[in-house]
Specification:
This protein is an alpha+beta fold. It has 9 helices and 10 strands. Strands 1, 2, 3, 4, 5, 6, 7 and 8 form an 8-stranded mixed sheet that branches. A hairpin with a 2-residue loop joins β4 and β5. The protein is globular.
Length: 283
């Protein structure tokens, strides 16, 4: 099963990022992925299905889920819901690390759940209002949330397997971040292994074990993702989108596109542009 690393960047001037879940309209699935930040999903209306490793959680209004750093998770949102997402960089907890840049939070309900949910809702309301002084008040509420996290939900005893997996995903996060920054150029397993001081065989095994995908397939998936964005923008043809994103040419992009989406990129572009033109005509 393939899963990917997601890079999270806080809002400018704030030690966090907060927003309404992108799957709030329903009919949504987010594939398995991980990130170094702590992520909290707070459901205030509707419901969604959460998967962490091999365990399934059903979240309803009033429930929330704390996703730990480097914890592989996926989300199913078949129905409409109202879910607040709060993302916190791992470095915010560095004074509470148990070692190896590691901190772990419980998924089980705690005695302060009701207060925790109230603070999450209040933070989103204050932050999104943008009213005078909202920045100071938002940070004040945020640090109350931080306090409850380390006081009521932090685990001080964690099994060795979790620590070991976290360390390996930390290593892989650095590598996938490098790939996302350099995917447009030539990129080989041997070159990336040399940069990170690994043997090619070790790096290859790391990708297969912890990302569930080969190194070559991962690089291609990143290139394809950005090529799709170029096609959707309408500013680039198929060959331009291919060359801009590290493919050797239009044929290489076409093969990857056909395998992933079941159609050629030219047809996808025509369908996307046609849909946008129809929508513009209705306005």
């Amino acid at each position: 099963m393939q899963f990917s690393h997601e890079l999270i960047v806080p809002e400018t001037g704030f030690p966090f990022k907060i927003f309404i879940f992108e799957g709030s309209t329903g009919n949504y699935h987010r594939d398995r992925h991980w990130h170094r930040s702590i992520e909290i999903f707070a459901v205030s209306g509707g419901e969604l299905e959460f998967y962490i490793d091999d365990r399934k959680w059903h979240l309803e209004a009033g429930d929330f889920m704390i996703v730990n750093s480097n914890e592989v998770h996926s989300i199913d949102s078949p129905l409409q819901n109202e879910t607040i997402v709060l993302q916190i960089p791992l470095k915010m907890f560095e004074d509470y690390f148990t070692g190896e840049q590691f901190i772990w939070f419980s998924h089980e309900p705690g005695r302060r759940d009701e207060r925790f949910m109230e603070l999450l809702k209040e933070l989103y309301q204050v932050y999104s209002s943008g009213k005078y002084g909202y920045d100071m008040k938002s940070k004040s509420i945020f640090y109350q949330i931080m306090y409850l996290l380390v006081k009521d939900y932090r685990l001080t005893e964690v099994d060795d397997d979790s620590v070991r997996k976290n360390k390996n995903l930390n290593k892989l996060s650095a590598i996938t971040s490098y790939i996302k920054e350099n995917y447009t150029g030539d990129m080989t397993l041997e070159e990336v292994a040399r940069i990170f001081d690994y043997s090619p065989n070790y790096l290859s095994r790391m990708f297969r074990k912890y990302a569930g995908i080969t190194f070559k397939s991962y690089v291609q998936s990143i290139r394809l993702r950005y090529a799709v964005k170029d096609l959707e923008s309408g500013r680039y043809g198929v060959t331009e989108a291919a060359l801009r994103n590290g493919f050797s040419g239009s044929k290489a992009l076409a093969r990857a596109f056909q395998k992933k989406y079941g159609m050629l990129p030219g047809r996808y572009k025509m369908r996307t542009v046609g849909t946008e033109l129809k929508a513009a005509g209705k306005r």
